[in-house]
Amino acid sequence: MEKKKNIQSSGENIMTTISQEEENYVRMSLLLYGITPRAVRALFNSEIDPSCLVASIKKAYNKLKDLKKKRIINQSQWNLLFPRNGDPDSNMFDITLMITLLTNLTTLEHYDTLPMVTDTFPAADLGRIKYYRNHISHNKDGTIDSAVLSTAWEDIVEAVGRLGGKNMLDECKELKTKILEQSTVPWNIRGKNKTFRPILSTLETRCKDQHFSPYISTVNIRSQDLNFTISP
Q1: I need a labelling partner for 27 at 20 to 30 A (CA). Which of 19, 73, 130, 230 fits?
Q2: How far apart are CA 205 and CA 211, in angstroms?
Q3: How far apart are CA 210 and CA 219, in angstroms?
Q4: Do residues 98 and 44 make contact, with C-beta atoms less than 8 angstroms apart?
Q5: What are the pLDDT digits (tens) for 27-69?
Q6: Residue 4, Cα to own-chain centre: how many angstroms?
Q7: Which ranges of the chain does DSSP label H, i.e. alpha helix?
């Protein structure tokens, strides 16, 4: 018999059940959208020091312009690189932009496929994170097989540990087993099944109402009237 878990939202008065595969999808989304951006940012700041960011971007203007023409950099990202007022702030860069800059403005290699497990260089770890984020973004049914999760999770977590250090590694380990509740779910995880869609839709609306920046990769809302947990 397929194991089901209850998921409840007091604000929406929703009580339903989810499968293990659906829970796997949520955990993987939290890992990829909540933790990996910070690991990539740690590498980004070590390769392109924030104090040198403005000079680095100005120096690479022609290359960046070419990337924009090729639609590798979109208009929103371009506006972050060259804001109308003030200087660019790397804290506002999304993970896609950071990876693009790292693989085009530094000596880090670009990966189009999943790197071999024996390749543990920073560029390979970027490739892993990019690969799995693309994979989950094309997930159509909002489920992940437990065997697939186990292999992918280990691959991603090891990359996070190498890029972000022990604290992020410990955070990944905690996420693997922790009880999931509303405050842990980023608004930009796109619910692709009927269980999570109404809850995540409400979270996204709440974020927009609060004028959160669309470039923030993870938003944690702690509204008293919107809490749900996955319980045994």
Answers
A1: 73
A2: 10
A3: 11
A4: yes
A5: 999 999 999 999 999 999 999 999 999 999 999 999 999 999 9
A6: 26
A7: 20-30, 36-47, 53-59, 61-69, 75-81, 95-105, 122-137, 146-164, 166-177, 197-209
